[in-house]
Request: fold
Amino acid sequence: MSPLRRHRQLTRIWQSDPGWKGWFTTVNHNDLGRMFMGTAIVFFLIGGILAMLIRAQLATPRSAFMGPEVYAQVFTMHGTIMMFLFAIPLIEGAAIYFLPKMLGARDLAFPRLTAFGYWCYVFGGSMLLFAMFAGIAPDSGWFLYPPLSSTLGSPGINSDFWLIGITFVEISAISAAVEITVTILRYRAPGMSLDKMPIFAWYLLVVALMILTGFPPLILGSVLLELERAFGWPFFQVAQGGDSLLWQHLFWLFGHPEVYIIFLPAAGVISTVLPVMARTTLLGYAWVIAAAVALGVLSFGIWVHHMFATGIPHMALAFFSAASTLVAVPTGIQIFAWLGTLWKGRPQLKLPMLWIIGFFATFVIGGLTGVMVAVVPFDWQAHDTHFVVAHMHYVLVGGFVFPFLAGLYYWMPLLTGRKRFFRLGETAFWLVFVGFHVTFLAMHWVGLLGQRRRTFTYEGGHGWEVINLISSIGGFITAIGFGLVIIDIAVNTVFAARIRRDPWRAGTLEWAMANPSPAYNFASLPRVSARDPLYDDPALPHRIARGEGYLGDAYKGQRETLVVDIATGEPLQVVVFPPNTPLPIILAFVTGGIFLGLLTKLYWMVPLSLIGVAALMALWAWGLGSRGDDVMRDVGHGLNLPRAATVPQPPGWWGSAFLLLADATFFASLIFGYAFLWTVAPNWPPPAYLEPGIIGPLVGLAGVVVAPFGIRLAERHLRRGGTMWPGVALALAGAAAMATAAIMAVRAAADPELHAYDAIIWVIAGYVLVHVALAAGMSIYATVRRYAGYVAPDRFGEVRIARLWTDYASVVALIGLAALQLPGAVT
Amino acid sequence: MTTLVLLVGCENSLSTVDPAGPAANVIATLWWIMLAGATLIFVFVMVLLALTFRRPGVADADNPVGEDGAARGREKVWLVGLGLCFPLVVLAALLAYGLVIGERLLPRDDPAVVTVHAEGRQWEWRFSYADAPDLVTENVLHIPAATPVDVRITTVDVIHSFWVPRLAGKLDALPGHENVLRIEAWKPGRYAGVSAEYNGPGFLGHRFVVIAHDAEGWSAFLTDGAP
Reply:
C-alpha cells in the first residue's frame, strides 16, 4: 500500500461525518479537542468583556454605571466563567487534542465519552449564559458562601443556576480526567515506557488524578447546598445543626487543588516548549516530574489558607501556613529547572519564547505574593482586599494564560497547518504584557490601602482614585492585546501559507505527522526507544507514513489503536473504537433533563430523564465487546494481539476504576462533612440519634458479605462454562439486603428538614442506595450479555466490571451504614 | 509611595500601612520586610533569566540534545542548590517569623483587657460593652485608647468580617460561632472600619467607626453613654 493510499483509507475511517452533521456526531479527538478549545476561548471573551465592565465601573469613584445588584452578578460571573468555563475546559481541550499525538496513539481511550463531556460542558455553560443574559445570574461571589448564597441571602433562582449549571459542567471535567488517566497509562506507542513519556503527559497524569480527587468535594458541596435550597435540608444552617463553615471547607478542598490543576498543565507546556526554544532538552526530567507530583500532593493540604480569617485555632493555621509556603519549593524546583535548561541551551527569542518570558516575569511575582499571603498575620490584613485580587491574577494569567499562549503559537502549525505570515503576534504580546502589569501591579497597593474586593464603587479621599484609573487603562490595553492575538490567529489561519512538518525541529511524536494533523494521527504506530523519538530517529515520520509501524493496514475499516503495559509500554492488546455517532450528544441532552428539572423545580422531569439516561447507557455499552469472532489480530512485525474487549480487564474496567476513585473521594468528603458537623457545628447533638437495633445492621451486614460473594460465584461458574444465575441471584439478594438496611435508616430519620444529622442520614443512605442499584443493574446486564454471546467462559471482562462496582457498593454500604449508626451506638 | 500615604486623611483611612495600633504595626513591618525580600528574589530570577540569553549555550542546531558530562553537575547547582535549598531556607525563616508574630497577636489573658461585642447583620454593626451591659451603639464602636480590647464577633444572618485596618487584621463573623479579635489603638482618635467579606448589595455601605477615648472619655462613655 502506498503512503497516499494508506492516508486516504485511514482518513475515510477516522474522519467525521460530512457537512453540519459532523459537528454533532464526531467522536474524534482532533475535532473535539479543537471544539473544546474553541468554546473555551469564546467563554474567555465573554469573561473578558465582564472584566472590562468591572474596570469601567471602577475607573472613577462614585460611578453610576452599574448598581450593586448588577455588579454582583458581573463579578460573580467573571470569576465563574474564567475558572469553570474557560480555564478547566481549555486544559481539557488541549489534553484531548495533544495527548494522543504525543503518546503515539490514534485517539483517547473513550472517544464517545470525550464527546459526551463536551456536550455536557456546552449545555451546562449555556445555562449560566442564559442566566446572565436574563439578568438572574448568580450574585454571591464565585465561591458562593452560604448563608449568603442559600435561601437566606439569595431567595431567587440565581444561586441555583450556579450550583446546577456548574455541576453539569463538572461532568465533563470528571469524564475528561478519567479518559486522560486511562489514555496516559495504557494508550501509548509501543516501547514508550514511563520514563520515556513526554513531560507534558506526566503533568497531565498528575492533573487528571487531581481532578478526580479535587472536584468531588465541590460536587458534594453543590449537591448539599442545592438540597438545602430546594428542600430545606439544613446542612449549612446553624440553627438546625448545620454550619456554613462546612461549605468553605468543601469548596476550598476543591478550590486550592484547582489552582494547581490550572497551573500544572501550563507548567507542562513550558517544560515542553522551552527546551525546544533553547535547542536543548529539559534539565532534570525526573526532578521536574517529582516536583509536579509533590505539588499535586501538597495542594490538597493547604485549602485552609483561604480561611485564615475564619477564627480557626492559630496552631492549626500554622500547619496550613507551613504547607502553603512549602508549595514554593516544588514550584522553585521547576522554575530553576527551566532557567537551567535555558542556561545549558541557546535560547531564541521566537514568539512562544516571548510568552514564556512573560510568564517568568509575571508568575514569579504571583508566587512571591502567594508566599506573603500564606503568612497568617499578613493574610489577616490582605484577605478580601484588592491585594488578593492582584495576586490571583498574577498567578492565573501569568501562570496559565501566558504559557498557554506560548503553547498556542508553538502548536499552531499542527492545529491549522499554516505558518505565521502576518506578524501581529509580537505587538499583541507587548500590549498584553504591559497592559497586564499596568492593571495589576499597583492594584496590590490599593488593596493595602484598604480597598475591599467586590465593592461596586468607592469614595474619593483614600488615595485609590489614581491607582484605579491606571488599572482601568491597563485593563483596556490588555483587552486590545488579547483582541489582537485573536485577530492574529484568525488571519494567519485563513491566509497564511502551508508549513512543513516539524517547523521547530522538536523531538516529540506530535511532530511526526503532517500539518494540520490528519484525523487518524499516525499512519502506523511507531516503536519508540527514546524520550525524543524524532531526535533519536529523524527518519521516523517517513517510516510511519510508509506503514512500517504497527496497525498500518487500515484493517476492515475499523478505528484501531494499541493498548500497552503501563510501565514498559509493551503492546498488549488492540482496541477497536466506535465510529461516529450521535449517541453522546443525545445522552448529554437527556442528562441535561435531570439538571433542568432540578433548576425549574419540574421534578417529574428528573426520574424520567434518569430512566432515559439508564436506557441510553445500556445502549452505549451494548455496542462494545466481542462475540468471539476475530479475537486475535496481527498488528504487524509478527505480533499477534487479542482485542481489548476480550481480556479480563477491558478498557471499561480501567475507566470504572478511575471513575470510582472520584466516586470514593465524593463519599470520603461526605463522611468528612458528617464528622465535621458532629464535632464542630454548634447545635449538636440533634434531638435524637438513630437507634441501631439489631435487625437493620444484621440485614445490611449480610448484604455486604453476600453481594461480592455472589458475583464471584457467577464468574467462577461462567468460566467453567456453567450458568451465572445462582451467583447473580445471590448478588441481587445481597444488594436487596443492603438497600433494605439503607431504607430502614431513612425511615427512622423521618424528617430531613429537622436537623443536619437527619439530612446527612438521607444523603448517606441515598448514596448507598444509588450504588447498590448500580451494582445490581450491572450484574443483570452482564447476565443478559451472556445470553447475547458477548460474555462467555473466555470473555468475562464485563463480569469483572460488575464485580468492581459490586465490591465498591458493598464497601460504601458497610462504611455508610456503620457511620449512620455510630453516634446512636456510642451514646 | 510615602507621599501617597501622607495624602490620605487619617480620619477615614483604611490603610494597613499606616498603623495606629500594635497589631497593625507588626503586620505592616512584616509587609515591608517581605516586600524587600520578594524584590530581591524577583530581581535575582530576572537577572538569571536575562543572563541565559547572553552566553553561548553548549547545544547548537546540529546537536539539539546537548547532553554532556556536566549534566549531573548542572542538576546539582540548579535543582538542589537553587530549586530546593534556597526556597527551603528562605521559607523556614519566614514561617518562623510569621508564627511568632501570629502568636503575639492572639487574644491572650491580660488583666487590663476590655471586652466588647460586635454583632454583624445586613448591613449594620451593633456594639455592646461588657463594662456597661445596657449600652448598645450602632455602627460606632467605643474603646479605650492604649488598652487591649477583645472584640467578640458574631452575626445574626450571613457571614461578615470585622476589619479596622489601622488597628488590626480582620476576623470573620460566622453564624453560630463567636470569634475573638484583639485590637488596640495607641492614641485616642477615630478609626474607620468596614465589613470585609462580601455580604450582599449593601456591602459597600457596611461600615463603622471605632472611637478610641482617653481614660477620662472612656469612663464618661461608660457612665453616660454615647456623647
Q: What stands out?
A: Chain A has three domains: 1-14+35-47+60-242+514-578+624-647, 255-261+272-280+297-499, 655-826. DSSP finds 25 helices and four strands in chain A. The longest helix of chain A spans residues 68-103.
